[in-house]
C-alpha cells in the first residue's frame, strides 16, 4: 500500500464528509475536534468539519465553563448553516438530509443564530425561496409576536436578516397570518397570498417582492405552548405550491426546532441572570468597600444602576428625617439596647432605673426615651421632605449633581418620588403623559430634560423603614421599563438601602467617637489626681516600713489616715526598689497613687482601703514570706500594681448582679465582668497624662508588664481560683519550690492574688470583726436591692433576714476557700504559716459563735413553764431577747467575706452605682464611708451577759466574756 500523505487524507475527508462524521461520533475525540475547529478558524472559514466537530463536543448536552464564558463575553462564533449550496446536498437521502440539518442546530445556544439556521434549513428542506421567524413575547393577557428574522434566504447572512429591538415588527396574536397561527396553533398553507384577506400586501409594495405561496406553522414547546411561528414563502420548483409532504417535513423539523429554541432561551435567561448577579455582587462589593463617604457610595450605586438598566438618568433621594432618626437611635443605643430591654422585660420598671440610671439624674430617665420609636408614616405628599438628592445624567459622561432644595421643590420628578414614599411601593410608569396621575402636560424640567417613563422604588434600611427613593428615568432604547427591570432594581435597592444605612451609621459613629474622645479627655482630667496633690504627697516625710509594720502579717490599716495609706504605698514601692530599678519619676509615682485612690468609689468595703490591704499582704508574702526570689523585678512591680488596681471602680455589687440586670458592663464582657472592668480602668489611668508609671519600660518590658497585670487582676475572680487550685495543689504536693516554668509561675501568681484578696480572714480577731461588719453591710445592700428592685429572693449571704445563720456560712466560706489556699502556702514555705494560723483561729471564733447561736435558738424555742402574772416582770426569754436585739436597728453585722464569686457558702461580688444606691437604698446611709478611722467603722455589739464589745480609739481592743457576739 502506498504511503498516505497529508494531502491525500485531506482530499478524502473533503470528498467523504459522511465518513468523518460517522468516525467522530463513534470515537468521540473532543481534542481532535478542537484541533480541527482551530485549523478551520485559522483558514478564515468554517465547513462541515467545524460544525460536526463542535457538535461532537457538545452532543452530551453539557455546558462547559469555557463555552459559558465565551457566551458571556460575546466571543462565541456565529456559524452559518451547514450547506449553502443546494446542489451539494442532492446526493443525500431525505433522512440523511433531515438528520444533517437537525445536527446543524442541535448544539447552537445563541437564539439569533439558531433562528437563522432554522429558517435556512427549512428553506433547504422545502425548496422555498425565503422565510421568516417570529418569537412570542408579552404576558398571558397581552401576547404578541416579534420578528427576530425576516426574509431569510439560503444565502443571506445573520446580520442582514436579524431585526434589532429598534426595527423589529410586533404582531398581536390573532392579527395577520402569523398572528392567526399563533392564536389557533393551526397550520396555514396558502397557494395565492393575494387572495387571502389576512395577507398584508403593503410589505410587497415596499420591498418590490411578489409573494405567491405561504406555508406558516407554529413552533410548540414540550408543554404545548406556542413559542414562535415559522413562515416560508414561494416554492421554487414545480407549481410553486407547498405540498402535503412539505407540511409534514416542515412540522417534523419544527418539532426539533421547538426543543432547540426552548433550550437556547433558557440558556439566554441563565446568561442574563448570571450577568445580573455579577452586577449585583459588584454593587455589594462596592457598597461594603465604601463605608466612609456617603457621596462616594451614592456615586458607585448610581453608576451601577445606570449600567444595569441602561437609562438616561438616575436619581437618588434621601428623606430629611432619616439622618436625624438614625442619629437619635445611635445616640441612645448605648443606653437601651434590644438585648437589654428583652432581658429586663420580666422585672419591674424600677430595675431599669436602678441598672441604667444616669448618676447625675436623680429623677430617673424620661419614660418617653425608653419607649421604642414609632416608625414614621407619611399620610400625604406634603409630609414628605427630602434632605438631599443625587442626579446622574448619562449624556454628561456620568456627571453627578446635587440639586438645591429649591430645585427639588420645583422638580416634577420629586413629586413622583414623594408618592412612592407615601405608598411605600414600587411605581413603574411606562408613559407619564398617558398615565395622567401627575398631569397630562409633558414632563419637562427647567434644564430641558424630558421625562417619558419612570421606574421609582423605595429604599429601605435594615429595619424595613423607608430612608429614600431610587428613580430611573427613560431607557436609552426608548422603551418603557418592564417587569424584568423591576426585579433587577428591587434586588438592587436592597443593597442600596444597606449601603446607605451603613454609611450613615459610620458617619454617626465617627461623630460619637469624636464626642467620646472629648468625654474621655474631660473624664481623664477629673478622674486623675492633680499635680498639686502629688506635690503635697511628695513633700511629706516618708515613714519607715518598720514604723508602719508593713512587713507584718498582722498589719492593721485602721489607725492610718488616708494620706498615711498613700505614704505606705510609696514606702512599699521604695523598699521593693521598683522606683529606682525602672526609673520611675517620683512625681509620676505619687500622682499615679493619688489617681488610683481617687478612682475607688466610696462603697462600704470594696474601696481604696481594701486595695491597700491587698497590696500590703502581697508585699508581706514577697518579703516576709520569702517569695521574692521566685519572681523577676518586673513581675514584682506588676503584681503590686495589680493589687492596688484589682477592684478599681467597684460598684458594691457582684458579677452575678451585673449579669442579672444586663448592665453595660455585662454586655461588654462575657466572663469575669468586674475583673475585666478593673483591668481596663487600670489601663485608662496608666494612659492618662502624668500617670504612666510604665513610661520608662522598653516595648518588650511594657508588653510583659501588661500581660502580668491582666493575669493578676483577672485571677481575683474566684471562679478561676477554683479551676486552678487543683493544679497548684499538685505542684505543692510534688515539692515544687522554684516555679521556674512560665505556667507554674502564672499559677503561683494567681494563687497569691487570691490569698491576698481574702487576707482579711487572717487578721487578728479584733480587726477581722470590724472588716466583717463592712462586708456584711455591703452584701446586705445588694440583697435589699434584689428584693425591692428585682423582686427576687437573694442568696442567704445577701439576705438580711438570714443574719442569724451567717456564722455557720462564714465557717463554710473559710473551709471552702480560705483554709485550702493558706494550707498550701504554709506547706510550700513555713514563713507563710501565719496566714494559715490566723485563718484557723478566726474559724474557731466563728464556729464558737455558730454553736452559741444554735444553743441560744434552742433556749428561745423552749415553752414557758409558768406564766408571770405581773405585767412589770418579764420572762427570762424576753430578757434574753432584749440582750440580743441591737440598740441601733441600722447597724448590722455579719461574717467576713472578702470574695467576688457567687458561691453556695459565701457572698458573691458585684457592682452598683453609688448615686443610684443612694437613691434606692437610702436607709443604708451608714455604710457609705470608707473605714479610714476607727470611730467611723466601730459598731455596737451586744454580748450575752450584757457586756458590750468595747472599741477604744486607736487600739481597737475588745473585751468579751463569753467570746460570743450576736450580729444583727
Automatic annotation (TrEMBL):
The keyword Manganese does not apply. AMP binds at residues 606-610, 647, 757, 810. The active site is at 606 (proton donor). Residues 530-853 form the PDEase domain. Zn(2+) 2 binds at residue 647. The keyword Metal-binding applies. SMART domains: GAF (SM00065), HDc (SM00471). GO terms for molecular function: 3',5'-cyclic-nucleotide phosphodiesterase activity; metal ion binding. Its cofactor is a divalent metal cation. Residues 358-369, 893-919 have a biased composition (Polar residues). Gene3D superfamilies: 3'5'-cyclic nucleotide phosphodiesterase, catalytic domain, 3.30.450.40. Residues 930-940 have a biased composition (Low complexity). It comes from the Eukaryota. Zn(2+) 1 binds at residues 610, 646-647, 757. Residues 852-865, 873-886 have a biased composition (Basic and acidic residues). Its EC number is 3.1.4.-. Keywords: cGMP, Hydrolase, Metal-binding. Residues 356-376, 852-968 are annotated as: Disordered. Binds 2 divalent metal cations per subunit. Site 1 may preferentially bind zinc ions, while site 2 has a preference for magnesium and/or manganese ions. Belongs to the cyclic nucleotide phosphodiesterase family. This is Phosphodiesterase. It comes from Patella caerulea (Rayed Mediterranean limpet).
